[in-house]
Amino acid sequence: MLNRYPLWKYLLILVVLLAGLVYSLPNLFPPDPAVQISSDRGDFTIDERQLERIRTSLSEAGIDIKAVESQPNSVLIRLSDTDDQIRARDRISEMLGGDYVVALNLAESTPAWLQSLSASPMTLGLDLRGGVHFLLEVDMDAALQQRLEVNASAMRELLRDERIRYRDTQIEGHTISLTFANAEDRDQARRLIAREFPDFNYASEDAARGARLVMTITDQAVNELQDYAINQNLTTLRNRVNELGVAEPLVQRQGPDRIVVELPGVQDTAAAKRIVGATANLEFRLEARPDTPENETETFPFRNNPSRSAELMRDVIITGDSVANANHSFDQNGRPQVNINLDGTGGTLMNRATRTNIGRNMAVLYIEHKTREVTRMVDGEAVIEREPYTERGIISLATIQSALGNSFRITGLDSPTEAAELALLLRSGALAAPIYFAQERTIGPSLGAENIQRGIMSVQVGLLLVVLFMLLRYKVFGIFANVALALNLTLLVAAMSLLGATLTLPGIAGIVLTLGMAVDANVLIFERIREELRTGLSVQQALHAGYERAFTSIIDANITTLLVALILFSIGTGPVKGFAVTLSLGILTSLFTALMVTRAMVNLCYGGKPIKKLWI
Question: CATH assignment of 278-443, given 3.90.1200.10, 3.30.1360.200, 1.20.140.150, 3.40.50.360?
């Protein structure tokens, strides 16, 4: 019979619509404005007495508290009004002092029964939800210095293996200088080193006492090193951000030596900077013997006890670059530790170094690059400048009991939080060069709320105009199209929520465009039905022919638009991707509602009935 669906198809449409309704519902429960209290050092303690003082202080300031939630490493204070967030943050910061980080946040308010169905609201982008924006600068000079130090260490090891004696090593600018007792040793070393290190230009010079070999790294090698440093840092930062669990972050290169990082929904800048900006790395070195020459040793303090120090060999066994995986746990005494797995090369080097040094101490050196602000007088005016510096400290000095392989552990850490962060940094990869914060900006939730209101207004205006047009043009069938349009919007929101897609302002523009395009299919179908009626077909035949003959045109039009959206997604970044995702999902939901839902409504109203006239 014409214009009748089997029962299973009606049930399928009903199930899809109900699922769409359920998974779009969380978006009706906007997150609560909140203030989060945590510790700048990672460890956190706050007692009930302090919380009561905070409640009293906020109440006296006229700030309405919705709820206070204690979490493992922080306290979350939910507020009733977004405008109170900044006032509450400033008041709490003044009470607690500098030992705590008080940050703006957004706390989800989805009902528990929806959370039990894994239903959650759409993720909002930086322009809607707020978050942090970092502009990081890569220290290319430090990258070059690190590379030269590694090469110098490898050169010294090569000379020792070949029993060629040298006196001193110096690194200055782009050059490495080695001093030898005589020209014969220098020439022999030059032939050996030049074969293993082709990225240097070599020159022989006379020294006051002996002969000197000067090696200058080539410009091509410097350029390759800089590109490698940027690309490696991009990969490492993306891994770190992914470990943080931030939805749809932006990590991209800007210019020759800068990287932009945007973290939507993150208001705790201290925690974000501690992970993203950390340049911590490890070096494994042997402790120096008493008879080791002074120019081959360096003295470092212990990180948790600066008054204690140890003398280590300048040569590095391996660095954090050789770590394949790392995770934190506790030893048999309940102290935090980091379990490390090395890659193949790192395991070989570690085994070679420890196999021949059983009974000797090996140190784990923790290296962190930081910056501090210094004030200098320039032309009689105080100018604040950023000065980079490096902290090095021993976190572990243990005796080698047996030859180590690819797996071992690091102890001597201060807290479980420090162990977790060190494991994260090692697991995500070491930075190829230090990075410094050239700019940081926090986008508050209040600005995002204003953008959301404007976006919702644009969707409402677009929806209203389409609804009015369809009602005036197609009468009863316009009602069918408008109902399908509302269901289409519901399904689109549900799909974005389920897939975890991020909604941005360009994404809202995609929704508005989807609303305008969603009725295209209905317009094609309804106009085709009108044409069939004018040719003299019966109502049932005209309805059937209208849907059947318009199907090909609808598919062709939407497929081409979908291909364009996929191209935008594949080559675009940031806002362009957000627009492409929304448009792609909108096309798919529009096809379903136009071809299935409106057909089901038409079949239920007119299918199998003796209708002589259509209001279309």
Answer: 3.30.1360.200
